[in-house]
Amino acid sequence: MDKSSNRLSLPASPREFGFYVNGACIPIGSREVFSRNSPGHDVPVTRIPKCTTDDLDMAVDAARAAFDDRRWSGLNGQARAAVLLRTGALIRERSEEIAYFETLENGKPISQARAEVAGCADMFEYASGLARSLHGDSFNNLGDGMFGLVTREPVGVVGIITPWNFPFLILCERVPYILASGCTIVAKPSEVTSATTLILAQILTEAGLPDGCMNVVTGSGSTIGQALIEHPHVDMLSFTGSTAVGRRVVEAAGRTNFKKLGLELGGKNPQIVFADADLEDAADGVAFGIGFNTGQCCVSGSRLVVERSVADAFAQKIQDKFARVVVGDPLNEATQIGAITTDAQNRTIMSYIEKGKAEGAKLICGGEQMDFGRGQYISPTLFGDVTSEMAIAREEIFGPVLAIMPFDSVEEAIMIANDTEYGLAASVWTKNIDKALMVTRRVQAGRFWINTTLSGGPELPLGGFRQSGWGREAGMYGVEEYTQIKSVHIEIGKRTPWIA
Ligand code: NDP
């Protein structure tokens, strides 16, 4: 910590990580190295191995052996729960280290990273209970000669591919639930944000997870990611990222072993604000919904669908909020909006801002690259006069860019909200319960917020409608997702012969 300000210091030298197989860290050795620079400061912070496909095979073999010999799935729920609980406690013990590397590699504010890490410990603690309560069903109504059971069994070896926007949070929305079900794991984080996934693997071993149950391979999506989605010995794959790569995942599963898939893809999420809302609360929520994580969230509220009678006044409130939000160095405790995570994403966001202007939208505020001497930052951006065919209204920008789309009636609000290929999340702001429930029922989205946004926790499931994905993560739904259902028919007494 720099004592003269509330700012953490940069590391003196980058930290080197190995990858993780069979309960052990494997050093970089002769492999190529990916050197990651902090997006907020442009200095090297981590060195990560570029694994080979042989390394991936070794990791899948380890996960396969650990699953097939039942060293994890054969334990009772109490034993699995104990490991998950200890993991939660160890995450809390190492929370400062995890938050620091999350911030260094991703560019998110340190205060936000700390809150996310605490939420991740909570995921493990909650999922420990699910390891004990996962159960099937029975049918006692099949007559005196038959009894039926429905059992849930872990699906097997699960590959996890995570993106760079919430490297630790997205991982922890999956790993505890997958482990609660009895599966084993091979995880591939985004190459630019691998550190905290590697730390989690060490923690799981320390918490007592048997070797081979959590493996991490590092490297680029086009090499290691592609090899993982095509791997014939992986039974299920959980992918979070762009819709374009999601399509490749589906194709690869079809070409290879029809592995089961969970997909959490893009979103173009509406924030629907009615004139009868608490407009102060709504303005704060809408600003948070697009500013949080620099808008690099699949659930960012990037379309402001606002009742026309209050649209101008509401736009002014958002502008005032954007003027006061603290953008800057992610290592500073006061920062609310940090850096853009990758150069490519920075270019993508700026190109959408240019497209918005070129297509005739009115730039109300922001839209600029902010200069803090180093790193890449974009000011929170508000566009008015946005029409439904514009790119900024239709495509996922994944940045702090909010598009205003006014409406005149409830029906029109619902129509605009549903006018997208996605269906990940939506928020509605109104004090009228009838309107809130009607909109909640009719807008197609997997996550819904009423008079709030982006809240969540380990209990409620995550996932999308339409092209936002398949399946659900978290909650008991998230554990069941990683199970197969088996029907068991049990005959009672003497069989009626087929051949007399
Ligand atoms: P990607 O979909 O390319 O990356 C997500 C993950 O998939 C990363 O781990 C990446 O690895 C991996 N990956 C990339 N290519 C392949 C492949 N062929 N096979 C298997 N895995 C692969 O997203 P980008 O990072 O390129 O971001 C592009 C856009 O995607 C963003 O602008 C945003 O719109 C959207 N996005 C959505 C996210 C969400 O949460 N829904 C998260 C991230 C992005 P690596 O990074 O190492 O290449």
From TrEMBL:
* PROSITE patterns in UniProt: ALDEHYDE_DEHYDR_GLU
Entry annotation: catalytic residues: E264
Task: Write down the SUPFAM superfamilies for this protein, in alphabetical order.
Answer: ALDH-like (SSF53720)
Keyword ATP-binding listed? The answer is no
Q: Which Gene3D superfamilies match?
A: Aldehyde Dehydrogenase, Chain A, domain 1 (3.40.605.10), Aldehyde Dehydrogenase, Chain A, domain 2 (3.40.309.10)
- Which part of the chain is the Aldehyde dehydrogenase domain? 34-488
> Is Membrane found in the keyword set?
no
Instruction: Tell me the keywords, alphabetical order.
Output: Oxidoreductase
Q: What InterPro entries would the database entry show?
A: Ald_DH/histidinol_DH (IPR016161), Ald_DH_C (IPR016163), Ald_DH_CS_GLU (IPR029510), Ald_DH_N (IPR016162), Aldehyde_DH_dom (IPR015590)
Question: This protein's superkingdom?
Answer: Bacteria
This chain's protein is named Acyl-CoA reductase-like NAD-dependent aldehyde dehydrogenase
